[in-house]
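Please review the protein record below. Let me know how this chain folds according to its tokens.
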Amino acid sequence: MPPPPKTEKSLGERRLTNFTGVGISVLPEIDVAALTAGKKDDEEPEDAIARAMHADVCTEYKKLEAAVADNGATDEHFTQPWKN
């Protein structure tokens, strides 16, 4: 809540607030063992994990972005509990 444009000494000064929605998506746990299986220490298993995580996040973000743009109507995976 931002401060008012000017400070008043009286109680009850008006504060303006705005509503902004937030999109939250939780992905399943990453199977690190499967991602690093067969990798040698010099093949940077951390890179394989980072690439897989980045790909998963990008995919989920696109779904979330589409649901927000379409007001949640495109995917049952996303809900808006305040509308129930």
